[in-house]
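A reminder from the course coordinator: this example appears on the midterm review sheet, so study it carefully.

Given structure:
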């Protein structure tokens, strides 16, 4: 229950590795699903409108 120096060496396991479809470090090793592109869950690419910034056209 001590903090400080003993807690520093706790990050040895990887949860996410490189996805072979999108190339990002978002493929979960245990769940076998990519959080960026949806590989392993769906054959379609994962895409949401809230991810991209909408360009505002002042003429409309």
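Designed residues:
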């Amino acid at each position: 229950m001590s903090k400080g120096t003993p807690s520093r060496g706790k990050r040895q396991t990887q949860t996410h590795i490189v996805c072979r479809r999108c190339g990002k470090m978002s493929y979960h090793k245990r769940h076998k699903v990519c959080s960026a592109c949806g590989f392993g869950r769906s054959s379609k690419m994962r895409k949401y409108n809230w991810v991209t910034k909408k360009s505002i056209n002042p003429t409309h």
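The first strand starts at residue 16 and ends at 17. The chain has no helices and three strands.
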